[in-house]
């Protein structure tokens, strides 16, 4: 998992990007969809492209 390779726990990363650990956990578990702004922030903080992190289904 990219978070672990970057040295983050879920708690640390969610705090780093300014969201609650619960909300971030819901995103990871596909229970919530992040806004485009939040999704881009997550990708940027992980130094990945948006497409590397998120799959958009029609």
UniProtKB/TrEMBL annotation:
Any Pfam family matching the protein: HTH_3
Protein name: Helix-turn-helix transcriptional regulator
Superkingdom assignment: Bacteria
SUPFAM superfamilies assigned to the protein according to its UniProt record, in alphabetical order: lambda repressor-like DNA-binding domains (SSF47413)
GO MF entries: DNA binding
Signal peptide: none
Domain HTH cro/C1-type: from-to ranges: 5-53
PROSITE patterns, alphabetized: HTH_CROC1
């Amino acid at each position: 998992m990219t978070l672990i390779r970057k040295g983050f726990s879920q708690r640390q990363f969610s705090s780093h990007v300014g969201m609650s650990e619960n909300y971030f956990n819901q995103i990871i578990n596909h229970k919530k969809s992040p806004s485009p702004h939040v999704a881009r922030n997550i990708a940027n903080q992980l130094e990945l492209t948006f497409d590397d992190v998120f799959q958009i289904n029609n």
